[in-house]
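Could you join me in thinking about how sequence relates to backbone shape in a protein? Label the sequence line and the structure token line clearly, so we can match residues to local backbone shapes. Once you have written the record down, we can walk along the chain together.
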Amino acid sequence: ESMTVAELKALWEPEAQGAAAVEALILTDNNARANALKSGDVDLANLEPCQVDDLEASGFTVNKGLSLNLHHLQLNRSRPFLDVKEVRQAISMSLNRELLVEAALCGYGAPAVQNFPAGYWAFNDQLGLDRYAYDPDQARQMLQAAGVPEGHTIDTVVPNLPVYLTLAQAMKDQLLVVGLNLEIRPVDPVQTAPIFYVQQSG
């Protein structure tokens, strides 16, 4: 699949158009995008973080920086125990965000506890960057105080894409330390939102 955007002849500032047309290829496979770049089939590509080093080693220039792309664990508060604020806080405190960035994003990213990165105009200084600092011992105590049984399972809908599956597995490993079992359920990416928000499954 592809999408082509052509120049607008009637544009009030025609000299602002730097190209006659731009064709965007829709390549959902990460390796296919990287290979298209290497073969010269495309001029630029949106990469996964763990592809950066390989492409730079191949001589490509990769523009890097923080964006508004946010990976997060969204909790369904209609599920047992997840309606308790202290349980949600404990889950957040169970996650070592720095290690998650290393595991899933090969270090290309930044730990966060809010939607916007530091330096962005909507960043909330009062929330800061460590509102729920990594503290698995305190998290385990909070879960016990809330009556969450050891080994409690949280069914988790995860887009069936490498970066999301890697991140989910890393989260699963960290949550096991505090006595929670993150049950990973891979699904087609386009079905993630309907399953979670409409079907309320997960």
